[in-house]
TrEMBL record:
Protein name stated in the entry: Tetratricopeptide repeat protein
PROSITE patterns: TPR (PS50005)
Keywords noted in UniProt: Membrane, TPR repeat, Transmembrane, Transmembrane helix
Natural source organism: Pseudotenacibaculum haliotis
UniProt cross-references to SUPFAM superfamilies, sorted A to Z: TPR-like
TPR repeats: 121-154
Transmembrane stretches, start-end: 77-95
Length: 189
């Protein structure tokens, strides 16, 4: 018979290839067309083997299924709202940070202005701090005033200028009025 060798080789090749495949489970035998169970054979013949279940048991199974479905649905919505909430909070934080930068910059809300003058501002603040350590309050107030000319609404500069005015008022009895004016303007804002 012609073609007998071909079908034998094809079947041998299929068996050999099957041995190379990874088994899905170490403990259960893999199900394929080569090893059908009796239940599968009965199903193929048109009968489905099943246990008889009462109406009460069916209602219980249905309730459990609905309960599990509702629980999964709630978890999905909870995750959805949690992700949306996190996104909203991140957006709020982003806009607050931008508004803080605009407050520091004051009326000059150009970002290029901020980037160009931040080094000079930091130098004036640190210079004022050095004068404060040396107890030269007049020079410290001068440096802080210059820093506030660059960024008029910066809270760090305002706080340090008030401190310098306060110490100058206590030691040299100067700039007491400026200290009071600055404090009153902070309280109003």
């Amino acid at each position: 018979m012609a073609g007998e060798g071909f079908s034998k080789h094809a079947s041998t090749s299929l068996k050999n290839n099957k041995s190379f495949l990874r088994k899905k489970s170490l403990f259960k035998k893999e199900r394929s067309f080569l090893n059908l169970k009796r239940d599968s054979i009965k199903t193929d013949l048109g009968t489905i083997p099943s246990k008889k279940v009462s109406q009460k048991e069916l209602r219980r199974i249905r309730k459990e299924t609905l309960k599990d479905t509702k629980h999964a649905f709630r978890i999905e919505w909870l995750l959805f709202f949690a992700i949306i909430g996190i996104g909203v909070l991140m957006g709020i934080q982003y806009f607050q940070r931008n508004s803080e930068i605009e407050k520091i910059i004051g009326t000059k809300n150009d970002l290029d202005y901020y980037q160009k003058n931040i080094e000079e501002y930091n130098y004036l603040i640190s210079s004022g701090d050095n004068w404060m350590r040396e107890k030269n309050y007049h020079n410290a107030t001068f440096q802080y005033e210059k820093a506030l000319e660059i960024f008029p609404k910066d809270s760090i500069g305002v706080y340090r200028l008030i401190s310098a005015y306060d110490l100058q008022c206590r030691t040299e009895q100067q700039n007491c009025e400026k200290r009071e004016e600055l404090l009153n303007s902070l309280v109003k804002d």
